[in-house]
Amino acid sequence: MLKLTRFLKPYKGYVFGGQFFKLLEAILELIIPTLMAFIIDKGVKNNDTSYILKIGKVMLIAAVLGMIFAFICQYFASIASQGFGTLVRDALFEHIEAFSHTEIDKFGTPSLINRITNDVNQLQFAVAMWIRLVVRAPFLFFGGLVMAMILDMKLSLVILSILPLFLIVLISVMNKSIPLYKTIQKKLDKLSIVIRENLSGVRVIRAFASVDYEKKRFDESNNDLSDTAIKVGKIASLLNPATSIIMNFAILAIIWFGGIRVNIGEMTQGQIIAYINYVIQILSSLIIVANLVVTFTKAAASAARVNEIFETKSTIGSRDNLINKQPNQPDTKTLDTPIVEFKDVSFMYNDSNEYAIKNISFNLKKGQTIGIIGATGSGKTTIVNLIPRFYDVTCGTVLVHGIDVKDYGQDGLRAKIGMVPQKAILFSGTIAENIRWGLESADDEQIRSSARIAQAEKFIDNLPDGFDFKVSQGGANLSGGQKQRITIARALVKRPEILILDDSSSALDYTTEAALRKALRTNTNQYDMSTIVVSQRVNSVKNADFIIVLDNGCMVGIGTHKDLINTCPIYHEICISQLEKEEVENIEKCYSASHV
User: Fold this and answer.
1) pLDDT, tens digit, for every residue of 434-447?
2) Residue 349, exposed/middle/buried by CB under 10 A (0-12, 13-18, 19+)?
3) Using one digit for the tens of pLDDT, what is the confidence trace for 196-207?
4) For residues 409 and 320, is the Cβ–Cβ distance under 8 A?
């Protein structure tokens, strides 16, 4: 928690102000039982109405002032706690945004969402309770104890004998409940994962008639969480009845022994009433302290989870450090300098013991197109994810314009790249707004031109509102092919130096894909774009300047379509499975004739 107090600095006036007004309220609360004793012992006993009204007015003023002070404290606590939560969420979001895919994979999306919402809410609540009760509860405890002793020291022995028993109950309940509160946070993460998977994969679940299985899976996770919550709830529920019993026995003892002291003339009836009120204040403040301990324990668990994010440094460096670290730009007129170059690159994911790709070396020059093909899991996407530095290489070097990608600022590097990911992701808003993600300043003509190249213009114009058609969350109201074409337009609108198409036409029919390839070829040449096409379709890559063939993370072939058919067995097998037999045989004959 202490590490997060830096977010309270802008609100320290509200923090101390809130505690000050709460202290004033507590002082007034301590005075009221004594004033009540005066009314009973002097006003009621002597039937002095004017005295009763006089002291009653003082009590009324004290109560009104106490209420005003409490409102002011509540107001300050609300501003400070909500402001604190806002700053923490902002900082968390900014920090997470700087994470590479490695850190995001490590935490998992549901856990990150829980930490930035549920855990921060828990911290907000703790801050509010800190301002409102941390000063008040101890002050009432010690103040009530002192006032009770001033009234009668001998009767205070009853309180001192009750306190140890009271503390034993509090500590016992806390010792059993606090570890369970920490467990609940972890089980909440697990439940969030199940919920997220079910909501995002609802179509697949229904398609495979797995609703019952997923309901069972959800019930298991939900019941696990609820069982733990019920268990801790049962333990915590013992606190109030147990402390109430002790408090009532304490009041009974005070009335008993106090009555004896009234009979012998050592105490008055008003003092007994005041004494009972002070005992209630003392024991109630202990209950509040116990609840505060539970609240701060929950907050401490949440703070540890939040601090874990802040203490996790991105493997690609912090955004602030890298944005300003711009390398000297090479002379782009020198065609011999590759736009992209891999030098003996190997990469291993954090949770794996095997390399995803091994010893990859190639270079891509300005205006060239490279195709990457291979079986599922062969490392195609891994290669293209290393270029915009979503991950850092384990071994070797990735260069852009002859400069290590680690020497670029993230924004500077990614400004050169247009990325069309394997999974088409759209955001809620209009189609035009989604395409404009690629270039914020893009005008309507640029958006339309990019959509035309991506073969999206026609279907967009047929939609009810055209480019102003509202895309639902995740693009659920569009087909897979439509989403892919919009994401391609989004990448094209920025006219990037490097265009990466990661299996971005898998949902397109062959006619649309052929038209897309033709339009891309024409326009990438026009804008001198260097293109990397990742695909499992031979037709998508066969016209590339050269093709890389991957198998189990290794580069088993590199060359043109015609060369690879004859020199790379794996590529030959892929072609046989996808192309007409006559086409493959003709290429083989031409290749043999040219090498005679």
Assistant:
1) 999 888 888 999 99
2) middle
3) 778 777 778 888
4) no
